[in-house]
Known about the structure:
Layout: E1 6-8, E2 14-18, E3 23-24, H1 31-40, H2 45-51, E4 54-60, H3 66-76, E5 103-110, H4 113-118, H5 138-144, H6 157-167, H7 173-179, H8 190-204, H9 209-219, H10 226-237, E6 239-246, H11 249-254, E7 260-265, H12 279-287, E8 289-297, H13 302-310, E9 314-320, E10 325-332, E11 340-341, H14 344-349, H15 367-380, H16 386-396
Helix pairs in contact: 1-3, 3-6, 6-10
Amino acid sequence: MYQLYPYFTNDGSVGLFSPDADDIYHSTYGALTEAYEKFILPSNIDMLLKKNSEIKVLDICFGIGYNTKSLINYILNFQYNAQVYGDKNKTIDKIDTDNIKSKISVSAIDTDKTLVYLSPFFIANKKRVKNNEINFAQNKIKKLLSGKITPNYNLNKEVNIILLNFLQNGIDFETEQILYSKKYNQFFDRFLVNLFKSYKLRRSISIPKSSLKAFLHNIYYKYVSNSYKNAIKALKSLDFNFTVNIDDARTVISQDNGLYNLVFLDAFTPAKCPCLWTLEFFKILYEHLEPNGMILTYSNSAAVRNAFLHAGFFVGKIFSDTANKFTGTVAVKNKELIKYELSEYDLGLMKTKAGIFYRDENLTDSNEAIIARHKKEVEKSDLISSSKYIKNFRRENDI
């Protein structure tokens, strides 16, 4: 049976641990917070919503879907000044999408089908949590978690209902077994699980479309909340579409002819999954980015930034007001879109061994092959080591 390794992060949203990589997928300070601050807030989405008639988003390594969920949440809240920050009691009883005139399309890519189809069910706003049932890397996770839940952003239930409407038909037996398992019960929203059950039963019964609304009202009334009604209203009002590809992102994008306004690059760490951080992959992304588009990623890696530069992008940084530090990277074709430029230190670091980027000429190599080739290149390089560079930089700048 498919195994999940979930835990609650410090903002009450669910994160995942990877036993293969012996590392976490999501920041312990908050999976939802990370999505907002590294992908949504720096994305100029307000400007896009005001100016563009069509917004196309590419979500690479969709996973649990926090980046797409946060995007939908932001758009639904757009006329309410979008950001729901620091107010854990904030809810929206009425969704009015009249101010949103854009057609919004999200194309998601991931290799893990089960995880993608589980994404609408994960809890994002838990206020009281216990991670005492974690039976994997328990000590490691506990050290990373503060034990105190601090919600920074509120994810409206409507968002998961909207996603479920797009994904419900792809949920297979194995996914259902996980949803109904007591082992993972605390990590899934029971409302969404029960709503899916109602969808499934509805499909198994022949009901005229004219009677469908009455069917839901009479038979499943206890599941039809204001959130459900708001989500259905939003789906009818918004020109929104969501598609998902379960495949290697290199293959999907190579066969794609579309151009995107926003690209969320949320692949696993370059040191362990370099195939989506290579120069060749970034060159493909360049071809698929609108002139005023933006690629956003959590990575601060000198090798990643150097690869972006060599692929033709202008590169900048993402700053988090909450963390009061730089927490990611942006790559653009239009330099004017960069709010925080790379510093002298950042540019110097890219000229060290740490800035040697990964290569994958045919976009088909395994991660192991890419890592092995990169290791040899670093070993043969005459460039200064990053540690020596940092030491010299601090001495010269009296840091």
